[in-house]
Amino acid sequence: MTAVDRGSIFRVWLPLVLGLYVLYFVFVHAPGPRDSVRWVGVVLCLIGFAGVIVARYTLGRSFSIAAKATALVTTGIYSRIRNPIYVSGVILLFGAIVILRRPVLGLVLVIIIPMQIIRARREARVLEAKFGDAYREYRKRTWF
Length: 144
Hints:
single chain; Four Helix Bundle (Hemerythrin (Met), subunit A)
């Protein structure tokens, strides 16, 4: 497998380029001043976005929308956080809310966070059923 195969282009690189373009577009065209508040939002978005991209890259072909247990990934960002895509996604969305200066959009987080917790628990059951003690040990040494 080469460093940049077709799968990684669609899994990592295309989302990276599109995401950065969207962030730039939002930063430039969102209403309100380009002050320190907007920059805090951009930094949060970049941290969240980087977390999502790194997690997707680390998962490789193990990534799926539905809970499947193809491999127990415990390296990279997954050595500290069991669900870095969910955590990073929340940081990204919070940053977007800060950029847009629309606190009412926080309601999106009120909906998404419980959904992500439910989804993470469902995935944990699937992984525990497949990997047993190895997954239980992994859970003990990682967060969320």
